[in-house]
## 1
Amino acid sequence: MKPLTECNNQHDKVMTENDTCNKGVREMISLIGTDLDGTLFNDHSQISLANQQALRQASAQGIQLAICSGRTLPTVAALFEQTLKVPGYRVCLNGAVIYDPQNQLLQKTALPPQQLLVAFQLAKRWRVRLCICGLEKIWVYQPDLLSGKAAAIKAPRLTLHSEAQLKTLIEQGNKFYKFTFNLIHFNFTGIRQAVKAAGQLPLHFVRSGRYFYEATAPGVHKSAALALIAAHANLDMANFMCFGDYENDYEMIRDVGYGVAMGNALPRIKQVAWRQTIDHDQDGVAKILRKTAIAN
């Protein structure tokens, strides 16, 4: 459901200084959720002072917060504990791992082992980088071990050398919650072929960068995680305001009552958003929060 439907036409998508559609929104918002890269983060992968202040003020007003990211638990936890210094839900690895504000686990959904093995085979065949994400560590397979552009996830990294090694890790009881493919060495044919094959697997498979793709178990995405949080906290997703920019944010922006697309968001994200804000490098999250969700 999209509240305030009279404000949802295309003309009103872009926030303006004279926006008259915000009356009543402030009283409705019960949770603010945000993606990180391309959304809450600026171009230096930092949360700007303006964004920090806006989120702290929202928390002080009693609004729940959630970081909804493809990143691992240590990164998301550190942002709450060391940067924002407020409590919040940690929706990690695109919804595969969910913790509450008291750092209690709500849900973990691991990838099926067989799909991980297929992913490794595809990475080896098509010579693309594969990252397999555990709760706190990331295992990286890179066919020729040459340096390419690193995936935008900060966590301890270990080298994955072979399919046999991956099988051993699985047999030892290790759980993995997300894998990624990304381009290395301008191997455009390889990434296209790997993505085409992975897209046929029973997975939730999305693009979250120009040549960066992410996979979680079927039905695992940010919106499903927020639905779990809504049930846990006895809240209604119609009263959630969430921010995003890329395909791994699509369901979240579509399904909450107040989905906000960044100015730098993909057209597909903007099409399903309740409102559009400005660029992530111009404090777009803080800008719309101050106009719609928090008291000035």
## 2
Amino acid sequence: MDQPPANIVDLYKAQGWNNEASIKADIAAGGWKSKVQAPTPGFSNTSTSGAGFTSTDPAQTIQAAIDALKKANEPAVASYQARIPEVQSAYTQARSQLQASQPSLEQKYQNLLDKIKGQQTADVAAQTNITAGELGKRGLTGSSTLAQQEIQNAISPLNVKYTGLTQETGLAQTDAMRELQNQIANLTPQEQADIFSINQAIGQLQSGAGQAGMTAGLNLYGTNLSAQQAAEQAKADAAQQEIENALAKQELNQPQFATASSGSGIYAIDPNTGKLISTIKGVQNQLGSDPLGLGIGT
């Protein structure tokens, strides 16, 4: 094989060459011949028993290529697989932390409600005393209807204010608890999505090995088949050349005769003896019936 096969670049890459410039330089230097002859890592160019394959069997060549690429992807696959328990552990920890924050969040809002209630009680009491004192200066006692009305009018805005604060705080507490529960619940689909992404990446590596392995296997099969055909042709050419050499040698070893004609006869003159051998029959008697050893009788 005087020229590199069409898929020589694929064969280089299958043997670990990744730099295009280096590949071209090696091809130009004639290094491609050793790449064609050398077995590709993970492959075999000869028949073996059991799990081996024959270079002219495309199915086995493709499977060997797929297996080799899968093996090359094993570290990446293992790394992805190791991430799954790490992700699960991280989500379990986050879930536990959020759940643990629920009692403290409830207590925070309860403390705020208690503070509002206490402040309301204190403010109402203070306003009642102030109003009662002012009424007493005017001669109105706290038991009178007018005094009670005045006191109620004085503390009513305070009660409205603190009632509103209590309601707002209660609503805020409800929203905060709902948000916390949503965060806890959302961790599950997020965890599933992350694990799915990891498994998808693993699947892409494995399926990619199958597709790339099929291409590499077919390329290697074509290379092996071309090499085998070239070897068979070389053997045939060598055998033909041996036959031609043998015939040429036999011709060189035969004596040369000069022919002459007289009347109806054909004569040959032996240059070694100078004797005249008459007729073709005489020549055959002199040389034998099969001078070239071709199995031809008289």
## 3
Amino acid sequence: MASASVPVDLEEMECSVCHEFFTDPKLLPCGHCLCRHCLLSWLDSQSQAAALCPLCRCAIVECAQQPPKSFEDIAENFPTDLAMASLVDAHRLLLKDHQCCVCDDVAATSLCLQCGDMLCAQCTQAHKKLTMSKHHSVEALSSLMAETIASNRRGSCTVHAGKETELFCPKHGESICQLCAMSRHRSCPEVTGLDEKMVEARTVLAELVTTLTAGEKNLDCRIRQLDEHIKQTEEQAQVAISEIEAVCARLHKSIKECEDNLTYLVDSSRSYITEVASNKKTYLSQRKGQLTTHKRVVERVQDARSPDTVTNMTPKLKKRVVNLDPGLALMTGANLKFCSRLTFMIDPKAVIIIEDGLSKLGQITDVPVDVTVENQEIEFRFHDNHGGNIVLSRNQQTAKRASGIKEGIVLSSDPMVTNMLYEVRIVDIDDSKRTDYTMFGVLLGSPADVTLPETSEDCHSALVVSSNCVYIQANLELTKKFGALNDVREGSRVGVALDAQRNLHVFMDGKDLGTVPMTTPGSHSGKYYALFDLGFRTPQVRALPCRQMI
């Protein structure tokens, strides 16, 4: 029977650029695929440094190239997703007319998963009886999925048509047939059975699934915490806004009351002064009228020709005018005294105090919130100060040696935290170099204050280990404690951690290989930075999230 397989949506088999089924799908760093020719056209339509995956907008070219590589080189460096290619081929096979490959114009009902031949019912029975095919898996087309076909089909030799791949050549990293083993790969050492290699590969894949599943759960937990944090922030903001509105409403009310009181005070003073002034004005207008009337009388007498009139009226008018007091000499007290002038003044000091109080009415306090999971992780990035032969990715989590074997030192961007493991995964390995040169350790002091030497063994402010020795401030000490580092391979993890007593722990693939006491002067104070030397065997590494040392 066919083995179980994971269903794949049709959309996953379609290129996001051409929207057709994949042709030679290239696996991008983000995990999405593009057809090889679509990848080339996509890179050509954008600048190399700004080329982003059309699905997730992650960078397609992680490391800046020195010198810049051609688009062909970039596409060639990305692995072909053979599993996706097999799925697409299987789906295309199912889309074909279901015609028996033996009989003419007879509908096929079954498919041989090994041969890839469509068979009618009669040919199916014959196929199951033939010596060469009686052990093949033949499935009904009505219930067959592309995933089942892809997961059960044996590979075909790319050199000898029609021959199945049965062996694996580690030197060339490819599956081969028996004829290849006897010809092209005759001198290759350690050619093994493909089934044996499959068992090994499936073990690695199972570990990768476990690692990725744990990572997914870890990130899901963090995302949920961030969602809850965002929700709480929204709720806290609404509460704060309500408080602000309430306080401001109260202040508006107080200010309005203050405005009304001051306005009333001014209006009252104005009304009083205006009323008093108006009364005085009325009184004075009446007095003026009396003076004007008597002036007319005096002028009439003055114009009179009769002596009797003049002599008789003059003393009487004089007495009357004196009593009228035209010079206002007798008008004293309330009859003449005015009210005070209306004067209103805002106290500027009081305004400043109020404004200062309003500016301090409410403040945002930035309180850091840790988003943690059961096993706390710290993001590990490489420092800007690194060897002159090193190229860092944009996120500074991948380091690559451009050429040569020197000037390959990289350091952690932040000081090490006690009991946290600072670890890198070896992305590439060069077994042609000396086997004892996987070197890493710690830098004593800030990277910003250090001029890095060509190799870590010459670094006078570092403690560095390899498989057969320890360099303490460039002084060599032989040891076999870390001999396991000779077994470092592509995909291995190596790292360092400091315990509370400032002992340096050396790790490989999660196993604590031993410790080195930090006996150098000043080793119990100051800061330490993880150090990795990409010289010799390890031309490329990727920083992993720091985790608690177990």
## 4
Amino acid sequence: MKHDGEAAGRSQDPRVLAYLLGELGPEERAAIEEALANGDEELSAELRALEAFLPTLQGTLGLESEAESGAESGGGERELSEAARGSILEAASAARGRTKSHWPALLAAVVLSLACIGAWMLVDRRPAYDGGTAYDIGGSSGGAPERRWFLGPRYSDEMIIKNRDQVRSPSSALESMGYLGSAEDLGSSEDLDPSFAAIAEGDFILTANDARSTFAIDVDTASYALTRSRIRSGRFPRPDEIRVEEFINYFSYGDEPPAPGTEHPLALTTQVAAAPWNPEHRLVRIGVAARRIEFQERRPANLVFLVDVSGSMASADKLPLVVRALGILTESLAPDDRIAIVVYASREGLALESTPVAAREAILQALDSLRSGGSTDGGKGIQLAYRIARSNFVEDGINRVILCTDGDFNVGVRSVPALAELIAEEASSGIDLTVLGFGSGSFRDDLMEGLSNRGNGNFAYIDSELEARKVLATEVGGTLVTVARDTKIQVEWDPALVHSFRQIGYENRQLAHADFEDDRVDAGEVGAGHVVTALYEIVPVPGASLSSAEAIGEVRVRYQPPSGGASRLLTAPVRDGGATFDEGPEALRFGASAAAFGMVLRGSEHVGDATLSDVRRWALESLGGDPGGLRNAFVELVERAEALEGR
């Protein structure tokens, strides 16, 4: 992390705040995004500082009903004054150089400054798009606008800050339970929280009973991003929202991919050191690094954007963010790639026929014209999307449907098994599915993850433009280009050296041992440039002598080529030289920090007496170069969780 004063030397560019608020015109926005794409680390750090600081400022000022504020303002357009912008920029700059313990003073300074200025908020910060067809997919009931509350960092069409005495907040009773919405929004208890499949944490297994562990690889990261959104909104995630492997796999660990010209598209790395939460146990990190492919050199892509435009997508962290995210992806594609846009709500529709990316402006115009309204029937939309994908199928190319939704499939839920079967059939014919989740509320995480798994795809949660850039620009090769299909991992431990073991995470990806060699069994896909990490905690046999010359186990990876055919196998030994945690590799130590964060939040019985403070310390001591700033952002998130815990 940057120390006091280090960040303050850089002059704050007001365009950075305007970029996050969605105010920049196309040319200025493109300039910012080009700089980010070219690796401007200072700009990226500045954006992350603002992204982290703005929600806290919102929480200090309070929350206001969008509907009521719109009525009070009479629909007039208001802008945040330059002086107010300057106060926010200065505070965010100072926040970059300080821990969260210094933030109350910074926030107080901003509040005092804004009170003197008398300019609390801005309305309609995105420039209006003039022209194009609006695709309003029916079902809007009209009448009084829906009452909604802001839940964290929404860089939105409408974001209202007014005079302090007019700011409203949830009732203290609701807030004490962690709910930041309005009482009117509660409805039934089923609507309060997302739907998540229950997770039974993996326990230790005696090697005398079973020395093997077999699971399907998983590259999803949605759980970490959703947890980040929860904490920034002022509440902890539910235990069932936390999939620890997705915390671990959100980060890169520097594992080397296979050298050019080698047989396999995957390379294996193993590392061992003491477990930080129990020094008597050993922690094993297994890294699987995929071959990198220059995105411009890959085969053409036939993509169908399947966009949920139902009424539940109206809030600023949903459809407006979907539009910006898909715009980022469009800018990342080559001219000969093709994009179609299918929308669904009360009925499905083709918003844009398959169009070459060379006609980029037409695609962006169609995206900007999307409007929300109606209830959700995701099944019909997916069927249409697959029909469009099949009609434009690229032989030996990338054929993929990209579903963008909050997962609120409240119409046609009884057809989910048939829908999953359809997705699996389409995947077997060469059309994969990527699922991007947006928003919170009735977010159907379990359904979205399950559908992406059946569709040979991946599942990511997008809570900001920066996350969209990570998934759809920086890691676009891994998101779209598959290098290994149906990838499975099996680890076999030596019972003479390992008394017992447990896998950390991957609870819903476990396979029968016999499935490892059965090519008919579906598993996980690995994209170009992806690095997948698995952690095991093992208990050595009492008195066993650990030596790097003797393997304590063997890792086996079995995968199928993207074009199909018989599976292939690669193996690597697991050797333990007896390193303490502090002596262990940086990658293992940071991976342990990410895993411990998830386990502490879940209340795991296996994390011992570890606290969020321990997690933060372990992470700070293993930051490394951190070129993208993600590890520093992780430390800031843990600090925010500590502050939330202390309330």
